Amino acid sequence: MNKNLHFDFLTSIVLMVLSILIIADSYRMAAEVGGPLYASPGMMPMVLAILLLFTGILLLQRTVRQQSMGNSLRDFMDWATIFVKSKSAQEMLTGGLVLALYTFILAPRLPFWISTSIFMVFIMGILNATSIVKNVIIAAAVVGSIQVVFQMIFRVPLP
Do 42 and 29 form a contact (C-beta atoms < 8 A)? Predict the structure, then answer.
């Protein structure tokens, strides 16, 4: 028996949810633009999302045929419990959270150099790159270099 069926089960669920969201957004895009659906910019993403939904359904059907839905869900929950308790998973999830905070909270509200410096110090701290003093120095050097290259040399405004 294949031990990774719980990944197929999870993948099929994620594919189906993602494709439904894309179909709904494509339809919304077509409605905002107006005109016939086949001529809207949302047509191609909708066709691809329908194909993605179909593949997700086929994958779910194959997984359930090989192993029941309950067993697939139980196997996934067992794996997820072990995964979340591992140190590398906690570091990865914390890094993802810091990235989300940077993208959605820091970057839109603070100047580039402040938000990026905070982000870099936290990421290097999560990864245990060096000491906190070295992390701050590296972040300052990188952000300063980016500022000089893009604003002074290329004359590109940074957000």
Answer: yes
Check pLDDT > 60 for residue 51: yes
Cα–Cα dist 154/106, whole Å: 25
pTM over the 0.70 mark:
no
Residue 107 CA to residue 101 CA, distance in Å, equals 8
Q: Domain ranges in the chain?
A: 5-85, 87-153
Contact residues for 139 (Cβ-Cβ < 8 A; gap 6+): 116, 117, 120, 121, 124
Q: Return d(Cα 147, Cα 21) in angstroms, integer.
A: 38
Outline where the chain has alpha helix (H): 5-33, 43-66, 69-85, 87-101, 107-109, 112-126, 132-147
Say which amino acid occupies 124. M
Q: What is the pLDDT of residues 107-151, one digit of tens each?
A: 999 999 999 999 999 999 988 888 999 999 999 999 999 999 998
d(CA 144, CA 116): 10
pLDDT for the residue numbered 108: 94
